Fold this protein.
Amino acid sequence: MDFTFSEDECLLRDAAREFFATEMTADRLRRIWEEGGGCDDRLWSALAELGLPGILVPEEQGGLGLDEAGAVRVVEEAGYVALPESPLHAAWLAPFLLPTLGEEGRARWLPRLLSGEARIAVGIPGDLAVEDADRAHLVLLSEGDALFALTAGSFRCEPRTSFDPGRRAFAVTPSIDPVCIGAEGARIAAELLDRAAVLAAAYELGLARRILDLAVEHARQRCQFGRPVGSFQAVKHLLADVAVRLQFARPVVYRAAWVVAREAPRRALAVSHARLAAGQAARLAARNGLQVFGAMGYTWECDLQLYLKRVWSLAGRCGDEALHRRRVRQALLVGDTVPGAGDTFAEN
Amino acid sequence: MDLRYTATEQAFREEARAWLAAHVPRDPLPSPDTAEGFAAHRLWEQRLAEARWSAVTWPAQYGGRGATLVEWLIFEEEYYRAGAPVRINANGLHLLAPTLLEHGTPEQKARFLPPMAKGEEVWAQAWSEPEAGSDLAALRCRAVRDGDHYVLSGQKTWSTRAAFADWCFGLFRTGSLGERHRGLTFLLVSLRSPGVRVRPIRQLDGRAGFAEIFFDEVKVPVSQRVGEEGEGWKVAMATAGFERGLLLRSPARFQERARRLVELWRRRRDQLARDPHLEDAVVQAWLDAEAYCLATYHTACRLDRGGVIGPEASTNKIFWSELDLLLCDAALRILGPAAEFPAGKEVLAKEADSGRWLEEFLFAQAGPIYAGTNEIQRNIIAERLLGLPR
Ligand SMILES: Cc1cc2nc3c(=O)[nH]c(=O)nc-3n(C[C@H](O)[C@H](O)[C@H](O)COP(=O)(O)OP(=O)(O)OC[C@H]3O[C@@H](n4cnc5c(N)ncnc54)[C@H](O)[C@@H]3O)c2cc1C
């Protein structure tokens, strides 16, 4: 049993953190907002240079060769800066979907994905819109049991304006037949949803930590009654509660990442648990963090909103709470046995 | 990351499972908070020790197996699955022993650890006083140096199992009250010493689960001091970290409870379709028990590889105590009107578990209080983990 990260994985996380800290500042995010959200080509190329699109691609195919468990903390760091999501979709989901296009399709798209030449957007089952679909060379869209591989001219793209200005979302309507349908399409959709849910969960961990850090910083600076508001116990306890929820969501997400990377049992339960736990932590961080900021947190000017809005806009995507609760109920309340002590890792 | 048990860990589990299957008493022992029950539990501790299961993480020379923390978690899982008896010497094994292993002299380790492992000497923790609860550094119970021993006078309270225990470990004031935590010394005191009087206190369940301890000129040899005089706070905080952090409540305890809760819900589900929120409460409690397990393994693996536990330990205490409340609240809500009659014949026939849930519910109410209240833990998290000003 080794529930820790390797030294290499830690180094990669640190590198990503450093890159995001310089590249994805609050000012940069605000410029992105003004330009209509999403990921511009310059950022896309910079991320490709960093190796992001190949993070889950085997080394012999030109990637970094990590699995989801090894890469999960890079996503966490992306969440910390509210990185536009489309490059994460390309890195986390596209390598899983490309093989469904056959050897030819994969050979055509994978090298260009890795080099950053091709932008691949992914439509996640249940979501109403595809991030950066208008900028993509290839849209992989999962709808019901159908998987579409759409290139320019084979789909219609209609903008959907989210209240989160960092989002650049489009409703996509295919005008060609799917590449995959029926049982195989349903299997792909299910697995895609699991992967997307873990991606969202890891991202939410980062968002929650960012909001917590901002609120702590504010509480140390802002003085009322002649002392920093962070010295008031009511304020301390709001933030301590966030720290607790976050501390206990993290390992749940790490385990889910390990589970989706292999054929481990009880996948739906592990994944939905991760999404629920991370979502709870992020929403608590948003609520309590905003409370600690007072009116300042309720302004457009305050950078807090950059992260709050992503928490709220992400909440209903990649499987919403209702979906994940239903899956957990199904796993726990139906079936022969109820998992208890000793069962958590037993069948891995 | 590799979330599979190694062959060694698997073999460890199988050995534990087989031994427990052969030795766990078929009928539950009487409550350890009675004289008869305490004696029965002491015998059980001796059986565990004979097979070297009583303190698996200790070095072999003191009666342990030198097991890793992950193996300890495995043992706990098997222990709770087997429905084995409550461990009456947990305060000694999990709180004092780590302190002795870190701060004790070789003589102290050799003298105190083996009889502790065997249950021959059961330990109580004597920190709290009537005037010093959360504000432990305000404690007054005095220890005055007199040649090769200390003389103790004063009072401790809320000391779990002290009604029947043999020894206590505690903090005593060797300096002045104004020195607060700098004037304290960590001492090991036999509860059989002349001048010690123990007065049991009935808890919510009516039993003598804890006690007051009065010290009237009690002589304690200097050789029973752990760490230096005046360094008691530092020594004690080492135990506090372990208590909150890892050892006090293993996840298995809550996971078995969560399993029973889900089973209870499955049996009573039809009748209780009238409360649509109940199912969510059941599911959430199970999920939190699972999360507690995952977080504990995460920490244990880190510590097994040389990591250390810091102020994040305080998050554990809050999480498991609130989880326990969720579990027990949900169970009582499922039992509904039957919940208040633990021993009613009809109720028992329908739901054998109900009396047990009620007992667990009562004890869960104490979780956010003992081992440092959850408010104090939140203060610690805010100040030491998050860096907010005092
Ligand atoms: C079942 C049980 C077993 C126990 N076993 C032992 C034992 O074996 N050995 C032992 O030494 N002690 C034991 N205790 C005692 C326990 O450690 C104390 O109860 C605990 O430290 C709290 O002290 P108190 O009860 O005096 O509450 P108080 O300190 O009087 O607190 C009362 C309330 O005020 C709050 N409060 C106090 N100070 C602050 C603050 N600074 N900020 C915010 N809120 C605050 C508390 O959180 C609490 O809600 C046990 C207690 C229980 C219930």
